[in-house]
Structures are given as structure tokens and as C-alpha cells.
Amino acid sequence: MNIDRFRQQGLPVLVVLLVGLILWYALTVGLNASGAIARVLPKDGSWSLEDLLLATLNMQRPLLPAPHQILLDIWTSLTKWSIGSPRNLLLHTWVTASAALTGFVMGLLLGLVLAVCIVHSRTLDRALLPWIVASQTVPVLAIAPIVLVILGSLGITGLMPKAVIAMYLCFFPVTVAMVQGLRAPQKLELELLHTYGTGRLDTFWLLRLPSSLPYLFPACRVAIASGLVGTIVAELPTGAQAGLGSRLLTGSYYGNTVQIWSALVMASLLGVSLTGLVSLVERWVMANRRVAA
Amino acid sequence: MTQPLKRLDDALRQQAEPLQTRPAIVAKGVNVIYPAADRPVHALSDIDLTIRQGEFVSLIGPSGCGKTTLLRTIADLEPISSGALTVNDLEPAAAREAGAYGYVFQAPALFPWRTVLENVMLPLQIQGRHVAECQEIAQEQLKRVGLAGFEAKYPWQLSGGMQQRVSIARALGFKPKILMMDEPFGALDEITRDNLNQQLQDLWCAEQRTVVFVTHSISEAVYLSTRIVVMSPRPGRIVKVIDSPLPRERTLKLRDTPAFMALAQEVREALAEGHHEH
């Protein structure tokens, strides 16, 4: 049973990982070779092929760092430095995560409120929906500096401006999914409540909201992932003091490619954990749901 | 008796009529017309029908005869175009708000995120009763439809027949005077259907509620009803109202008796008559 499951689910993933690693190492050697010959190996040409290989895989500032270099960099940053130190990646991950989560919660609330308004008012449906769609055609990269500058001039700095930009990306999938979800109840179910003389508020809590949950959770997974992107983008233009975005920026300033890659790896790990968190909540809330056969 | 005296006598009798015998549902000249681009659809045409308290009335007819539309207008799920309609002496909308009837749809319409017990509790909760009271009533209703022990199950764990029984328990929980059923057993197999017909009969005998029952099964109508309203389409109208001579309490065996077969034949002929009229 367990072996079967491993074969069906674990094995393909492992194979792809292995192939990816091999390709990565090959690419590392290929891309770093010219740099290694020019900067690391003896100028007189007295080096063997083995020297070249080792040099390409362990350069100070490689074009493409090898996986073990990145892992080592993350490991030392986590173990050698205290949690409060700006050299500890966990601190930066937490700074980014807290802003992304705050933005996600704000976006979730905004998205819910907008969806409820749209579903319950035909006027708002017509007035709001085009603007909500239009809002997402503006690139976040263009909006982020404007928001940061405006909020900064109002004295709002730190976590909040980043959260606002994350919210800007989060609310959209939630709104769209919830409009669909709150309209999901069938005529039959609405008529059933109608025969009991149920008011709008009761109809919302007893029928519309529970019916919309299967739509809400997939939207939340999308939202929290794009909220993380928004947070990192917001950390870039102002040269934020901390956060994974600022690590990316300083890394590229000083040509520290290993630092960029470790920040990138931490960002993807964070993304996976955040969507995993949403999935956990979903599993807990939807424990007793089954699709009607 | 002279004419004026008789009229006075009638009036007095009407006044003295106890609540029990006041009609549950009165339809007078009810029309339902759907506007359509080419020709308006006459879904119900001049319906006159009085349903007394405690009657079991079946509406039977082919598709499009308006039997479901008639039930839906009584339940205020659809408006009437003209005529007068009262339910427990109230306008349909006011009767609905007052919880005058329980409605059983063709599909069980159970909420999949609620347990069986919670589904039966739904209308009681909407009425704002205490949770403990809701639970108690719901448990009793489930027992009554033979589903004790299934309280904690979810609808998808039950068979179709059991789901429909839950929906009947739900409709009965708040003790409405009238029970309206729109082909409640139409989607079930014949064995389950027989079984549920028997249960419904027992339930009606025990509680003496008014039941309005839409069906397209002749044997179901004859087996259950005290009165059978035969309807015909284009325009939707009542062709014949047949009083059942069968006793109030019935068993499935009754269906093999000559009286049952004669009544079924009468219904069949009325249906055919309505069919040949145009």
C-alpha cells in the first residue's frame, strides 16, 4: 500500500528533482567556466579539468551558484547568526511573511465585502465589477512605488505599505470567486428558504456563505501566493531595510549571486508554506463536505 | 323554507362554522399567464378549488397541465395573474410568512454541509427557537419518519428515499397546518415509493393535516387521496374533481380491491377526457 503510493506520487517527483539537479550542475559548470578560467584558475594554464570543475562549483561570485552553495549559505545564515541579526534569513522571511499575511487578511476582508455588495445589489454589480477587473490590469510594479511614496508621506511606513500592496493583489481572486460562490445556491435551495419566510441575512449565513466555501479556498491559495509576490515587489523599490525583497536587491547591488538565490529559495519555501497553511485551514473547515454523488 | 329565510340560515351556519371546518385553501377564478413574445402562455385558467381542513388532495395530470404551478401559487412561489387565492384565510404571501405550510420539493434539497439532524432543525432555527428545543423536535420528527439513529449522518451518506424522508421530517418539524408536496417520490424506484406512500398515509392518518399532493401517478393519487383533482394542459385547468369513496385508513393491499380499481379507472377516464377535448 505504502510502496504503491510512493511509486505513484513520490517517485515521479523524485525523478524530476534528480534530473533538475543534474541539469543545474551541468549548467553551473557551463556558465561559470569562462569566469573561473579568467578569475580563479592560475593564469599560466597549469590546471586540469578536475580543477576547472571544482572551481566552477565553488566560486565566490558565480554567474549561477551550485545547489550546495545555496544550501550552505542558507544553513550558515540560520545557524551562525542570531534570529535578530540582519544576516539571518529567517528574520527576512518573517518580515516578508508578516506583511504578506497582513495583506492577505486585509485583501480577504475587502474581497468578501465587495463580493457581498455585488451579489446583493444590482447597481453595485454593474458599477463595481468593471473597475475591479480594470484595477488588475495596472501592473503592480507601477503601483507599488506610488503607494509607498503616498503612504510614506502620511507617516505610514514599515509593514503597512507592503501589506496594502499585497492586499491590492489578494482581493481580486477572492472577490471574483466569492461573487460566483455566493451565487452558487440553486433556485431550489433558495425557494426552500423562501417557503420558511427567511430574510436576507439568514439566507446569507445559512445558505450563501456555506455554498461559497468551495469557491473561496482555491481563490485564497491563489491570493496568498500573489500577495507574497506583491510584498516582495513592494520591498524592492524603496530599498527596504529587511525582508526577502531587500535581500534580493542588495544581493544584485553587490553581485552576490548566492545571496540572491538563497533569498529566492526562502521565498519559494515561504510561498509553499503559506499555500499549505491555507490548505490546512480548508481541510479543517471542509472536513465533512463531500461532493453530492 | 322561503328564499330569504334560507339565505339567513346559510349565513348563520357560516358564522357558526367552527375553525376546524373552515377551508384551508380557497382558489376563485385563479389565472396564471406567462407573457411570451408570440402568444402568452395560459398556465392556469379559471381555477376554482376549495380544500377543506384535514383533506388529502392530489393534483394529477400530464406534464404542462399546471398542477405544479397551482401548488407553487398556493405556496407563494409564483404570483397569480388574476383571481383570488387564500391560504388559512390569508393571502399566500402572508400565509407563507406565518409558516402556514411545509413544502416538500421533488428533490430533497438537503444542505450537504449539515447533518441529517441539522437539516431538520433548519426551519426551526430560522424561526429563532432555542437550539435545544430545535434538537428535540428534530429528533422526534426523524423518529416519526423512521430515521432514528441517522441524526449524525450527512445527506450524501443516505439513499434517495431516506433523503426524501429527511425532507418530509424537515417540512413537518414546525407543525404547519398544511403540507404541500410536489411529486416528492417521483425520482424514486417503485419499491421505495410504495414504502414511502404507506408511511405518508400512516403519518396523515395520525396527524390529520391538510395535504396537497402533486403527482402523475394514478395509483399513488388513488391510494393516498380523499379527493383527486384531475387537470389538463393548454390551458392548464381542472377537468374533474373526484371524491374518494375509500376508507380513511388504508393499506397497500387496498390497491387490489375492486373499489380501488374502479376509482383508478375513473381517474384514467377523466385524464383521457381532458386529453381529447382539444
TrEMBL record, chain A:
Domain called ABC transmembrane type-1: residue spans: 89-282
InterPro entries: MetI-like, MetI-like_sf
Subcellular location, record wording: Cell membrane
Main location: membrane
Keyword list, A-Z: Cell membrane, Membrane, Transmembrane, Transmembrane helix, Transport
Membrane topology, as annotated: Multi-pass membrane protein
Transmembrane segments: 12-38, 94-119, 131-151, 163-182, 215-240, 260-281
Entry superkingdom: Bacteria
CDD domains: TM_PBP2 (cd06261)
Family membership: Belongs to the binding-protein-dependent transport system permease family.
Name under which the protein is recorded: ABC transporter permease
UniProtKB/TrEMBL annotation, chain B:
Keywords from the UniProt entry: ATP-binding, Nucleotide-binding, Transport
Gene Ontology molecular-function annotations: ATP binding
Coiled coil (residue ranges): none
Pfam families noted in UniProt: ABC_tran
InterPro entries documented for this protein: AAA+_ATPase, ABC_transporter-like_ATP-bd, ABC_transporter-like_CS, ABC_transporter_ATP-bind, P-loop_NTPase
Domain ABC transporter intervals: 27-258
Gene3D superfamilies cross-referenced by the UniProt entry: P-loop containing nucleotide triphosphate hydrolases
Family: Belongs to the ABC transporter superfamily.
Record-given protein name: ABC transporter ATP-binding protein
